[in-house]
Amino acid sequence: MPVVVVESPAKAKTINKYLGSDYTVLASYGHVRDLPPKDGSVDPEEDFSMKWEIGNDSRKHVAAIAEALKSDNALILATDPDREGEAISWHLKEALTKRRSIKKDTDVRRVTFNAITKAAVTEAMQNPREIDAPLVEAYLARRALDYLVGFNLSPVLWRKLPGARSAGRVQSVCLRLIVEREMEIEAFKPREYWQVKALLSTPRGQDYEARLTMLAGKKLDRFDIENATQAEMAVQAVASRKLEIASVEAKPSSRNPSAPFMTSTLQQEASRKFGMGARACMSAAQRLYEAGHITYMRTDGIDMAPEATAACRDAIADRFGKDYVPGSPRIYKNKAKNAQEAHECIRPTDMTKDAASLKLREDDQRKLYDLIWKRTLACQMEAARLERTTVEIASPDGQVGLRATGQVVLFDGFLRVYEEGRDDVADDDDKRLPQIMQGEAANFAKAGLRDQYAKASEKADPAAGPAAMISGNDAVLGTQSFTQPPPRYTEATLVKKMEELGIGRPSTYASVIGTIQDREYVRKEQNRLIPEDKGRIVTIFLLNFFRTYVGYEFTAELENELDEVSAGEMDYKALLGKFWRDFSAAISETSELRISEVLDVLDEALAPQLYPPREDGSDPRICPKCGQGRLHLKTSRTGGFVGCGNYPECTYTRPIAGEGAEGEEKMLGLDGEDEIWLKAGRFGPYVQRGEPTPENKKPPRASLPKARGNFLPGWAPDDMTLEKALTLLTLPREIGMHPDGGVIKSNLGRFGPYIMHQAPDEEKPVYVNLKEFQEVFEIGMNHAVELLAEKRANPGRGRGGAAKVLKDLGEHPDGGKIAVYEGRYGPYVKWEKINATLPKETEPGDATLEQALELIAEKAAKKGGKKKAAPKKTAAKKTTAKKTTAKKTTAKKPAAKKAAAKKAED
User: Does the keyword Metal-binding apply (predicted)?
Assistant: First the structure.
């Protein structure tokens, strides 16, 4: 039987169904070789030779493929149809050749398919090809570049900037975008302006709003009404005049559907509509692809196969009628910069199946498939036909003019199925207007705008004057506005920007954005990306000492050259040589600098943000605590901070940016005789009970929690009250004594809220993450004991907490409980350390002990029969294995310093 190799077991299972028993389908479980994180893995002195190493986890998978080849001399490499897939196939061929599993007469073929359907797989098998050498060379070039940048630049960061984690070729450029946007926001000076509108009514009693566009016979620009005095005059000018309809103009217009999804637009829309991060989006898309529901999800292409277009048009006619099908198919062509990975668009493999008919269990998969299905259907539907109406309203003396706009949908077209999300706030010009006739009176409506006035007035700062004003008849309203800084990036808008600049590729967007969050250079709050102090310091360092290599144009041009390599138009070693010549010189030059020199440069570069002018004109660098020392940029293992030069006599510190940037402290109130303070330190804002004294050198304090995902919102200093501070200062909270002895406590940790308990006979505490932030303060004994019991019964679940038991099935013949559990990828049965997925057609409540025993036996057999022995003997063998692993870990210690290579991002 020919041996077919794919990346994942899920993909293998689906393909095996189509190929049948004539083929052996195995999984490589991703990449099988990588560059070891040590010196010399890429050697510029030896023509950039690369030394590959098979990972410990991959050895058994390569061995399984080699074993299968003993009984058949045909190997079909069916990995993904992109650069990474081509590289995996090349690595497999190389590794198997070195093992002598591939011989001179072995038939090695490469097949690719854009969708895992029976038709696509069958067609691919009939059209094999050779491994694409230029595409492999493009992979080698990228991998070498990432190694050279990560392995050489990251150690410079470690030595010069304590707390910095890593740098990467695309990762650092992406971080620069976020940091520079934050600096734009900090430098932004809001400008005041006022808007005036009126609530008018037709002679038939139908109300509508109109905004002021002309005053004193002149057209108004945005900033013509600059303050409350001018706004009051404008309100009175409108309210004191009779108004009439000067003109009514209705224009037909149409709106075409968006193109079908490619990787970047799918990530953007999933973020807009669901708040789904790029990683989560690609993970759900990967599983949909492997199950055969959608086409390949890493693509720069928006074109659709003719047969798919025809199927889409048929589905539209069947569901909505022929009126929704345009006369000819819509053809979409790529406009994106560097459309290198231009496979077909992301679309369903069967347009007759909507999300409901697939009965997908996972919420992310269900939502994403529904989004892809609707977008694909919409892209081949008729345009929406609209009518936009503009009404001009004027006073008879020509001194005042207002405008009302609106639109009506005459034919919904593709809007019946799908409307694209927006990153900005929509205008109000899509409101429906009542029937308005030219020449008729525009009366002031009796309903008035008093409610809107009250809402706008709530925002007013009493010291700064009114934020709104209203006419005596309540029908004319003036509201204060301020220009807004550019918004922080979301993952969606960041991917869009990266795509516009030509940096990164479909296969790297998610990993790059994930990496800068994993490194704690960036945090995500309310779906917005905010740079941490260490991320800001790293960016400024790179801009001052490695500006070329974090340049947008340089990175995009390098991507262009890599595309040329993949097209066979450039030699990849020539590209590497050109890059290394200048980059190695920059590394050598910067390595000679002392940390103090680096900090002086960064201190000066960040001065406008670190030391903004004070209102009283005093020196912004003078320490606000001791009044004598000068403030300087300093670094620690957690990142940069501003500290007093008189340390240790003065211990003043504050974060580089964000809350408390001026080092101000705020007393929130008294608790008995204790003062409760809000302060700012190098690790961020915190609350403290009292001040240090000789008797109490370390008064109780608690950091304000930062946002950690959707369940743990951050606490902003501006929102802190005495009550909230006192709540924080109660932590860690003692919930009570556990029935087995020992106190149960709740607290906030790095990864969110948790409870902990250590029984008298336990060597270390047991921790359980809590799902809701408020549970830290509210969880009771009964619930805490239950959670701890579940965790002890199911250890090793990590931050996700203990799995939920859906059904107890009974005892295994060899001892031990068998049960059905709720898992991230669906329900599964578990016995000891063996987990086996429950078939999709089986509901958890219908699972039987006999069925579970069969599933467990099958899983144990796939693992090499490790569970055939009695439980005690098996445990003994595993202990021995762990000892061997421990030795290997020790041997690798020197390489740990060089982890930059492994961490380097594309």
Answer: yes
409 SS3 class: strand
pLDDT of the residue at 165: 73
Which secondary-structure segment (H or E) carries 213? Answer: strand 207-215
Reference 471, options 179, 125, 199; nearest CA is 199
The amino acid present at 526, given as its one-letter code, is: Q
Residue 820 token pair: 């059905």
| Reduced 3-state DSSP string for 680-741 | EECCEEEEEECCCCCCCCCCCEEECCCCECCCECCCCHHHCCHHHHHHHCCCCEEEEECCCC
Cis peptide before 827 (omega within 30 of 0): no
502-513 b/e (C-beta count within 10 Å ≥ 16 → b): bbbbbbbbbbbb
- Contact between residue 747 and residue 712 where contact means Cβ atoms under 8 Å apart: no
Residue 853: beta bridge partners?
none
Question: String of b and e for 384-418 (b: at least 16 CB within 10 Å)?
Answer: bebeebbbbbbbeeebbbbbbbbbeeeebbbbbbb
The secondary structure element, H or E, covering residue 537 is helix 533-545
> How far is Cα of residue 357 from the mean position of the Cα atoms in its chain?
29
Residue among 593, 780, 603, 661 at smallest CA distance from 187: 661
Give me Rg for the CA atoms of the chain: 32
Annotated active-site residue in 139, 147, 296, 686: 296
Helices (H), 733-833: 775-778, 781-793
Listed residue (26, 150, 48, 884) closest to 515, CA to CA:
150
Q: Which residues of the chain have pLDDT under 50?
A: 336-340, 426, 658-663, 709-711, 798-801, 865-906
H/E stretch holding 667: strand 666-671
Which spans in 29-82 are helix H? 56-69
Q: What is the DSSP letter of 434?
A: -
Q: Which helix (H) or strand (E) holds 454?
A: helix 450-457
Q: What is the 3-state secondary structure (H, E, C) of 855-871?
A: HHHHHHHHCCCCCCCCH
Spatial contact of 595 and 160, defined as CB atoms under 8 Å apart: yes
Q: Tokens for 906?
A: 């594309």
What are the tokens at 888?
Answer: 């290997």
Cis omega before residue 648 (within 30°)?
Answer: yes
For residue 855, CA distances in Å to 418, 522, 811 come to: 42, 43, 15
Q: How far is CA 6 from CA 9, 137, 341, in A?
A: 8, 21, 19
Half-sphere exposure of 170 (CA within 13 A, CB side): 29
Q: List all residues 6 or more positions away from 162 whose beta carbon is below 8 Å from its beta carbon.
A: 635, 636, 637
Reply yes or no on whether 453 is catalytic: no
pTM: 0.71
What angle do the packed helices 133-160 and 552-566 form, to 10 degrees? 150
The CA distance from 770 to 747, in Å, is 10
In terms of Cβ atoms closer than 10 Å to its own Cβ (0-12, 13-18, 19+), residue 186 is middle
Query: Strand, helix or coil at 226?
Result: coil
Identify the bridge partners of residue 255 per DSSP, sorted by sequence position. 384
Tokens of 99: 């093992």
If we measure between CA atoms, which residue out of 485, 488, 487 comes closest to residue 524? Answer: 488
CA dihedral over 362, 364, 367, 371, signed as positive or negative: negative
Separation CA 523–CA 663 (nearest Å): 22
Q: Using CA atoms, how far apart are residues 290 and 117, in angstroms rounded to an integer?
A: 10
Per-state percent for the chain, helix, strand, coil, to nearest 5: 40, 20, 40
Find, among 317, 304, 316, 381, the residue nearest to 349 by Cα.
304
Task: Write down the pLDDT at residue 679.
Answer: 82
Nearest CA to 827 out of 816, 840, 817, 809 is that of 840
Distance, first Cα to last Cα, the chain: 38
- E strands, 448-526, are 468-470, 476-482, 522-525
**Residues 338-349: b if buried by 16+ CB within 10 A, e if exposed:** bbbbbbbbbbbb
| 384, β-bridge pairs | 255
* 53, β-bridge pairs: 34
